TrEMBL record:
Cited InterPro entries: Chemotax_Me-accpt_rcpt, Globin-like_sf, Globin-sensor_dom, Globin/Proto, MCPsignal_dom, PilZ_domain, Protoglobin_sensor_dom
Originating organism: Terasakiella brassicae
Name of the molecule in the record: Methyl-accepting transducer domain-containing protein
UniProt feature, compositional bias: Low complexity: 375-392
Tagged with keyword Repeat: no
Highest classification ranks of the organism: Bacteria, Pseudomonadati, Pseudomonadota, Alphaproteobacteria, Rhodospirillales
Methyl-accepting transducer domain location: 181-420
Length: 711
C-alpha cells in the first residue's frame, strides 16, 4: 500500500503533476481563512447522526479535532507526497477502522468539506450565482453517493470473497485434518478389530480346550471315583488277605512243628526198622540153623531106618517150617527193606518239606510285611483318591466357571467386534458426510453455480477402469455421482464421463469418498452449456409439483400444532422437548418426547394424504431440528420384531436420522430445500430426491417436513 511505485502510479493516473500541486496550494491559500469554520460546520453535521455522534462523543475537545482536521487539509494541499504524507494518510485509515467509522460516513464527510471548500473558493473568485453553487453541491453529493455505493459493493464483495476464501481454506483444512483423524481412527479401529478377531479365535480355541478339559475331568473324576471304590474293595481285600496271611503264617508254623514231629516219628520208625532187620536177621539165622538141624535130623533118621521114620517126618516138618520161616523171613526182610527205603525217602521228603515249610514261613512273613505295606499304601491311595476326587470336583466347578466366563467374554468380544465394525462403517461414512456438509454449505461450496439434484445413468472411465453409476446432482460447474465402491476403484484426477442425457465430457475428479464422486467440468462449449441449462430447467420445473406439496404439508402441520396448543393438549415449550427417552427393547433404538403423542394424533392424516397426491413419493414425514422423526407414514410404523434389519426398514418412526441429508433437512430455514438423499435401509442404500419445507410454531423454528421421491 505504501510502495513508492504504487504512489507514483496513482499520481500519474490522477494527473497530479507539479502544476497541479501549485494549483492545489493556491486553492488552499484562497480558502485557508475559512477552513476552521468549514470544519466546525462539518463536526456539527456529524453530531446530527447517531452513527457518527458516538465517535465524536469519545473526544471531549472538539477544538483539538478541528485543528487536526485543518492541519490535515493543509498537508494534503501542500503537494508534498513524501513518506510522511503516506504514513499520515494510512494512519487516518487505520484510525477509522479502530473507531468503527465506515467508509460511507467518511466519504460523506469528505465530500461535505470539499463542497463547502469549492463554494468558498468560487465565491472568493467572483461567482455569486446561488444556482451555480447549488449545482456544484448537487453534483458532488450525487458523485459521493455513487462512489459510496460502488465502494460499498466492492468492499463487501472483497470482504466476502476473502471470507469465502478463508472459509474454503478452512474447509479444506478441516477435510485434511478429518482425513488424517479418520484414517487414524480407522487404523486403530481396524487394529482393534484384528485384536478382537484374534481374541475371538483364542476364545473359541480356549472353549475347545475347556470343553476337552471338562470332558477329561469328567473321565478323570469317574476314574478316580472308580479307583476310590476299587481301593476301598482292595483295602477290604488287603485286610482279609492280611488275616489269611496271618493264619497261613500260624499254619506254616504248625506245619513246621508237625513236620518236626513227623521227622522224629520217622526217625523212630527207621530205628524200629533197623531193629526189625536185626531181629529178622536173627530169625533168619535161626531158620537157617533149624533147617540145618532138620537136615541133620533127616540124615540121622535115614540112618535109623524104621525107627527113625517118625523122627524123619518131624525132621521133614521142621525142615518145611524152617523153609517157610525162611521164606517168611525173606518176605519180612524184603518188606523191612522196603520200609527202610520208604522211611529213608520219607525222611528225605520230610527234610525237603521242612525246608519248603521253612521257606514258606519266610515267604509268609515277607507276604505279611508286604500286605501290611499294601494295606498302608491302599489306605493312603484311598485317602488320596478321595482328596483327588474332591479336588477334581473343585477343578470341574472352576472349569465350568471358566467356561461360563469364556462364553461371557465371547459375547463381549462379539459386541466389541460389532461396535468396531460399526465404528469402521461410521468412520468410513464420516469423510463423505463431512465433505457433503462442507461442500454443500455456502462457505465450502466450490461451485459457483446452483446444484440441482437429478438422477441419470453415468459411465465413468479412468486409467482402464470403467464404472457405472448414477448422478446425485448437477450444476454448470460439475456433477456429484454415486458409484459403488468408488473409493476402492477411483482416485482424484482426469477421467472421461458419459452422462445419459448430456453426452460425453472430459472431467476432473476432485473428491472420492466411499461411494461419492465429485467431478468438475472443464470449459463448456456453447452447445454443452445450453444442454446442461435446459436439463436443469426441466428438472426444476418437474420438482415444482413436489415443492408445492411439501410446502402444503408444512403449512398444514403448523396449523395442526396450533390447534393442539389452542386446545391445551400440549404446552408450547413441550413442542421443543429434546429429552429423548429411549424405548426399552427396541433395535434400532426408538424414543419418545413430550410431543410424540401429538404428532401421532395429528400428522398421519396429513402425511398419508400428501403421499397419495403425486407419483413416486416414497415418504412424507415431519422432523424436529435434531432430525427426530416422531410419526412416519403408516407403512413405516410397524411394531418391531426380533430382526433389527427388518425393523430398520419397517419401523422408522420415533427415531433420529442424523445423517447429512437428515441434518440439512431438519435445520433448513429456506422456503424449500431440494437435495439428494442417500437413504439407508438395512444393508441397502437407495438414492432419492428430497424436498424439505420448514415448520414454525408461533414464529419459532420447530423443524421441517421431509418428502422424498424417486428420481
Amino acid at each position: 500500500m505504501g510502495d513508492k511505485n504504487d504512489l507514483t502510479r496513482r499520481l500519474e493516473f490522477l494527473r497530479i503533476d507539479e502544476n497541479v500541486k501549485k494549483s492545489m496550494w493556491d486553492f488552499f491559500a484562497t480558502i485557508n481563512g475559512d477552513v476552521p469554520a468549514i470544519v466546525e460546520n462539518f463536526y456539527a453535521h456529524l453530531s446530527g447522526f447517531q452513527e457518527t455522534q458516538s465517535i465524536i462523543d469519545k473526544h471531549s475537545d472538539v477544538r483539538t479535532l478541528t485543528d487536526a482536521q485543518r492541519q490535515h487539509w493543509e498537508n494534503m494541499f501542500s503537494g508534498d507526497y513524501a513518506d510522511a504524507y503516506m504514513e499520515r494518510a494510512l494512519t487516518v485509515g487505520r484510525v477509522h477502522d479502530v473507531i468503527g467509522l465506515e467508509p460511507r460516513w467518511y466519504l460523506g464527510g469528505y465530500f461535505m468539506l470539499i463542497e463547502q471548500m469549492l463554494q468558498t473558493y468560487l465565491r472568493k473568485n467572483g461567482v455569486k450565482n446561488a444556482k451555480v453553487m447549488d449545482g456544484v453541491g448537487a453534483m458532488l453529493r450525487s458523485v459521493c453517493l455513487d462512489i459510496d455505493l460502488a465502494m460499498m459493493t466492492y468492499i463487501e464483495s472483497g470482504e466476502l470473497r476473502k471470507i469465502r476464501e478463508q472459509l474454503l481454506q478452512m474447509s479444506d483444512e478441516i477435510l485434511d485434518e478429518s482425513d488424517q483423524t479418520i484414517q487414524s481412527v480407522s487404523d486403530q479401529t481396524a487394529l482393534m478389530q484384528e485384536n478382537v478377531d484374534n481374541l475371538s479365535e483364542a476364545q473359541i480355541e480356549l472353549q475347545k480346550q475347556v470343553d476337552f478339559a471338562t470332558e477329561s475331568l469328567n473321565h478323570t473324576l469317574n476314574s478316580i471315583q472308580t479307583v476310590a471304590a476299587a481301593t476301598e474293595e482292595l483295602d477290604a481285600s488287603s485286610q482279609s488277605i492280611a488275616g489269611q496271611v496271618q493264619s497261613s503264617e500260624e499254619i506254616a508254623q504248625n506245619a513246621i512243628e508237625q513236620s518236626r514231629r513227623s521227622q522224629e516219628t520217622v526217625n523212630s520208625l527207621e530205628t524200629s526198622a533197623q531193629e526189625i532187620a536185626s531181629v529178622v536177621a536173627l530169625v533168619q539165622n535161626i531158620a537157617s540153623q533149624t533147617r540145618l538141624l532138620a537136615l541133620n535130623a533127616t540124615i540121622e533118621a535115614a540112618r535109623a531106618g524104621e525107627a527113625g521114620k517118625g523122627f524123619a517126618v518131624v525132621a521133614q516138618e521142621v525142615k518145611n517150617l524152617a523153609a517157610e520161616t525162611e521164606k517168611a523171613i525173606d518176605q519180612v526182610n524184603m518188606q523191612s527193606g522196603q520200609i527202610r527205603e520208604a522211611t529213608e525217602r520219607a525222611v528225605h521228603e520230610i527234610e525237603i518239606t521242612n525246608q519248603l515249610i521253612q521257606k514258606m514261613g519266610e515267604s509268609v512273613g515277607h507276604i505279611s510285611e508286604a500286605v501290611e505295606q499294601q494295606t498302608a499304601a491302599t489306605t493312603e491311595i484311598s485317602s488320596s483318591a478321595t482328596s483327588a476326587s474332591d479336588s477334581t470336583s473343585h477343578v470341574d466347578e472352576s472349569m465350568k466357571d471358566v467356561s461360563e466366563r469364556n462364553v461371557s467374554a465371547q459375547s463381549v468380544a462379539r459386541k466389541v467386534s460389532n461396535i468396531s465394525r460399526n465404528v469402521i462403517r461410521d468412520v468410513s461414512g464420516l469423510r463423505g458426510a463431512m465433505t457433503m456438509l462442507l461442500r454443500t454449505s455456502y462457505a465450502g461450496n466450490r461451485r459457483h453455480s446452483e446444484r440441482v439434484p437429478l438422477g441419470m445413468t453415468v459411465t465413468l472411465k479412468q486409467n482402464g477402469t470403467e464404472c457405472v453409476g448414477t448422478t446425485a446432482d448437477l450444476s454448470l460447474g460439475g456433477v456429484s455421482l454415486r458409484i459403488d465402491h468408488a473409493q476402492d476403484r477411483l482416485k482424484t484426477g482426469a477421467c472421461h464421463i458419459v452422462l445419459d442425457k448430456l453426452g460425453a465430457f472430459d472431467m476432473d475428479i476432485r473428491q472420492v469418498a466411499d461411494n461419492v464422486v465429485n467431478a468438475a467440468f472443464g470449459a463448456h462449449t456453447d452447445g454443452e452449456k445450453a444442454r446442461i441449462v435446459q436439463l436443469l430447467e426441466e428438472t426444476k420445473n418437474h420438482d415444482k409439483t413436489y415443492i408445492a406439496l411439501v410446502q402444503e404439508a408444512a403449512n398444514r402441520t403448523e396449523e395442526a400444532f396450533e390447534t393442539a396448543l389452542r386446545k391445551n393438549q400440549i404446552a408450547f415449550e413441550d413442542f421443543f422437548d429434546i429429552d429423548y427417552q429411549p424405548i426399552a427393547n427396541t433395535n434400532p433404538r426408538q424414543m419418545l418426547t413430550k410431543f410424540t403423542a401429538i404428532t401421532d394424533e395429528y400428522l398421519p392424516d396429513i402425511q398419508e394424504d400428501i403421499v397419495q397426491r403425486a407419483p413416486n413419493i416414497v415418504f412424507c414425514a415431519a422432523v424436529d431440528r435434531a432430525a427426530y422423526l416422531p410419526t412416519h407414514n403408516k407403512v413405516y410404523m410397524k411394531e418391531q420384531s426380533d430382526d433389527p434389519v427388518w425393523n430398520d426398514a419397517n419401523c422408522r418412526n420415533r427415531r433420529i436420522f442424523a445423517d447429512p441429508a437428515g441434518l440439512r433437512a431438519a435445520r433448513n430455514t429456506q422456503p424449500v430445500l431440494v437435495q439428494a438423499y442417500d437413504r439407508k435401509v438395512g444393508d441397502q442404500v437407495v438414492l432419492l430426491k428430497e424436498v424439505d419445507a420448514p415448520v414454525y410454531i408461533r414464529g419459532r423454528h420447530w423443524g421441517n417436513v421431509r418428502m422424498a421421491y424417486k428420481f
